[in-house]
Amino acid sequence: MTSKPVAFLLADLGVTKTHSRPYVSDDNPFSEAQFKTLKYRPDFPERFGSIEHARAHCRGFFPWYNAEHRHSGIALITPEDVHYGRTTAILEARAATLDAAFAPTPTASRAAPQHRNAPRGGLDQPARRAPTRPRRAIRATLISPAGCLK
C-alpha cells in the first residue's frame, strides 16, 4: 500500500491551495504589511544584539500597533477599537466633527466631507464572500507581545 501525496491528502481534508502568488512561501499580505510597519518604524534597530533585545523591541511595538496605530485598511481605526466594538461610535464622532466644520460655510468652493465606512471584515481583512466549501474557522485576535518570537 502506498501513501497519498500531501497535496491530495490536504484536498481531501478541504484545505485548498492559494494561487494568488505561486511559489512564494510568505503569502500572507496582512502579516507582510504588519512586518513592513515594524521594519520601517524609526526606532527599529539596524541589528538586534540578542533574542532578548528583539523580544524587548516587540513588547513595545505590539501594544503600539494594536492600540495606537491607525490602519488605513480599517477606516483609520486601531485594531483594538475594532476588536472591542468601538468602531461605530468613533466613526459617528468623526462624522459629526466633519459636518460641524463644514456647516458654517457650505457654499465654499469645497465639496461636502466624505465619511469613511466601518470595516466589514476581520481586524484588517476585507470582507469576503462565504466559502463554497466548509473550512475551518479562524479567529481574528490581536497580536500579543507574549506570542512574539517564541
Describe what you observe in this structure.
It contains 5 helices and no strands. It is mainly α and 150 residues long.
Structural class of the secondary elements?
mainly alpha
Broad shape = extended
What multimeric state do the chains show? single chain
User: Helical residue percent?
Assistant: 25-40%
Rounded average pLDDT: 77
The total strand number stands at 0
Radius of gyration: 21 Å
> What sequence of helices (H) and strands (E) makes up the elements?
HHHHH
Main pleated-sheet profile = none
Please give the structural blueprint.
Blueprint: H1 6-12, H2 29-39, H3 51-67, H4 79-83, H5 87-102
Question: What attributes does this structure have?
Answer:
150 residues, mainly alpha, 5 helices, 37% helix, extended
